[in-house]
């Protein structure tokens, strides 16, 4: 607070149709730097200024509740479009993959985003770091993606942090999208694969990008022999993805962004029924499709690694924590311990991106303490899932 505010008071002039008199205490707004004289005192001062005395508590609560509810619905309509029942309706990706042979590819991601996290993991596992450089954006206070250097990286493994746009030198992701031929005024989302040769967006659909990274760049990959979508498992992969995407990947958002009780109830039932089935399945199978890590495991992992950090609390996915599912938690640790995976996880950025940026869900912007079961040291504890591989069961 400025020195002016700390040592001066604002006096309200008297009405012109009354005899001049000295201002009384009820017409004075006292500005204080004391922690006790916070937003409640300011609200009380404003009501006194408007009505000469405080509003009755019941009327004040009703007024604020009505105003906040209207503001919340307006903000939620911008943040998370809904259907007629109040259920979250995720907008479709604008740029689907149609093929490219460019050698000038560049990946844009944001670390809080589970969809972008998929692409970072597949890029790392395939050894595409040299072939596909990455720029990491941070969510700004207005919800848009910005490029800036941020200190204090809080990540697992070697870590990855936000930085500058090394491909185009832009300050925001919206500016990057705007560079494409004909410009662009739509949603500027991550992940986004950019072609520096044609100055255009290649794709901003995460599942398309990870499929392309898995099989379309083997000529420049350091680990071309790794196949996360082998032909004999494609059917199973798609079957699992049709279960996981609507009920888990998007399911947590359906819970958090629900705008009616009915929509929330449906979403939370779908989510935890699916998690229960996954817990049972993973009791006898190391990965979703057997002994082989596949793309669908990575898609599930990026939601699970955020579950206790953000979704359980902020998105009201409160029936159970991930750590209450022994098989799912061990499965998450199993994947986390695969070389290079931990280095794609930045827990500080994940928590900041949810708790400090999603204002309609957390107006105070207070970031809670990290759950102990989500700490790097706990995630590196033995998972014991090697015994589920068929080679050990024979």
UniProtKB/TrEMBL annotation:
GO terms for cellular component: cytoplasm. PROSITE patterns: GST_CTER. Residues 230-372 form the GST C-terminal domain. SUPFAM superfamilies: GST C-terminal domain-like (SSF47616), Thioredoxin-like (SSF52833). GO terms for molecular function: glutathione transferase activity. It comes from the Eukaryota. Pfam families: GST_C_2, GST_N_2. This is GST C-terminal domain-containing protein. It comes from Clitoria ternatea.
């Amino acid at each position: 607070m400025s020195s002016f505010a700390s040592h001066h008071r604002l006096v309200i002039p008297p009405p012109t149709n009354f005899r001049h008199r000295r201002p009384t205490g009820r017409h004075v707004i006292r500005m204080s730097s004391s922690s006790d004289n916070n937003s409640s005192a300011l609200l009380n001062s404003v009501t006194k200024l408007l009505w000469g005395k405080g509003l009755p508590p019941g009327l004040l609560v009703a007024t604020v509740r009505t105003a906040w509810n209207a503001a919340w619905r307006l903000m939620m309509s911008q943040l998370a479009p809904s259907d007629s029942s109040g259920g979250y309706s995720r907008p479709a990706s604008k740029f689907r993959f149609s093929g490219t042979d460019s050698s000038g590819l560049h990946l844009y991601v944001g670390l809080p985003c589970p969809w972008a996290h998929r692409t970072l993991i597949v890029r790392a596992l395939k050894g595409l770091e040299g072939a596909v450089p990455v720029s990491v954006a941070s969510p700004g206070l207005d919800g848009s993606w910005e490029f800036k250097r941020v200190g204090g990286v809080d990540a697992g493994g070697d870590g990855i942090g936000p930085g500058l746009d090394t491909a185009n030198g832009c300050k925001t992701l919206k500016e990057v999208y705007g560079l494409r031929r004909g410009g662009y005024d739509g949603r500027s989302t991550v992940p986004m694969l950019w072609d520096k040769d044609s100055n255009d967006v290649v794709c901003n659909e995460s599942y398309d990008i990870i499929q392309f990274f898995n099989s379309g760049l083997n000529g420049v990959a350091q680990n071309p022999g790794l196949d996360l979508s082998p032909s004999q498992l494609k059917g199973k992969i798609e079957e699992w993805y049709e279960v996981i995407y609507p009920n888990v990947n998007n399911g947590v958002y359906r819970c958090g962004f629900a705008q009616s009780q009915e929509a929330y109830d449906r979403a939370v039932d779908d989510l935890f029924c699916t998690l229960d089935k996954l817990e049972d399945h993973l009791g006898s199978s190391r990965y979703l499709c057997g002994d082989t890590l596949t793309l669908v495991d990575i898609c599930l992992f990026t939601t699970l690694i955020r579950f206790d950090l953000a979704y359980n609390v902020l998105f009201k996915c409160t029936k159970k924590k991930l750590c209450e599912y022994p098989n799912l938690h061990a499965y998450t640790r199993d994947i986390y311990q695969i070389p290079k995976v931990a280095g794609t996880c930045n827990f500080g950025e994940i928590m900041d991106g949810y708790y400090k940026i999603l204002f309609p869900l957390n107006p105070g912007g207070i970031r809670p303490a990290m759950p102990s079961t989500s700490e790097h040291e706990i995630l590196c504890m033995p998972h014991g899932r090697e015994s589920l591989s068929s080679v050990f069961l024979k």
